[in-house]
Amino acid sequence: MMRAQLFRAMLLTLLAWAAVPPAFAQPVPLQDKPFAEHRIVLQLSDGDARKQALVLSVANNLLKAYDPDKIAIEVVAFGPGVDLLLSGSERRKQVESLIAQGVRFDICLNTVDTIERETGKRPEFIPAATPVQVGVGQILFLAENGYTVVRP
Q: Looking at CB atoms within 10 Å, which of 12, 91, 98, 138 has the fewest?
């Protein structure tokens, strides 16, 4: 009888532990670009339309300067920068064009969650954007894996 109670207690503890989200969010895996000679992460934490246009311009210019197979470009948007990746963004077509050319756009889910808490509505973002739990964590992960961080 004591064994069954101990087993149930252990099982309940295990289930409770499994339901708790991990303290450290896992970053999104690196892009599959085996021939990339250059790896760039563009940080976008600004809601200013001119800065967002600049990030898109830098990504576009890098694609022109290097063969798209020879460069890995990742744009990580967090804070006000996520506005670029919302479904209603006026620059959506530019973003989707860059995605079609191999640029990855990451959107910070912590920021999306904050917007939802503040407005009561979860914002819709471009489906082709890659959700990451922690935008700055993704930048750190990329930097630790050979990416050069650029903040235009």
A: 12
Q: How far apart are CA 124 and CA 88, in angstroms?
A: 8
- State how far the Cα of 140 lies from the Cα of 40, in Å rounded to an integer: 12
Q: What is the pLDDT of residues 27-68, one digit of tens each?
A: 777 888 888 999 999 999 999 999 999 999 999 999 999 999
> Which residues have CB under 8 Å from 63's CB, separation 6+?
71, 73, 98, 101, 102, 103
- The owner of tokens 């670029």 is 84
Please give the backbone phi and psi of residue 149, each rounded to the nearest 5 degrees, phi first.
Answer: -85, 130
DSSP 107-121: EEHHHHHHHHHHHSS
Separation CA 135–CA 105 (nearest Å): 11
> Exposed/middle/buried for 4, CB within 10 Å: 0-12, 13-18, 19+?
exposed
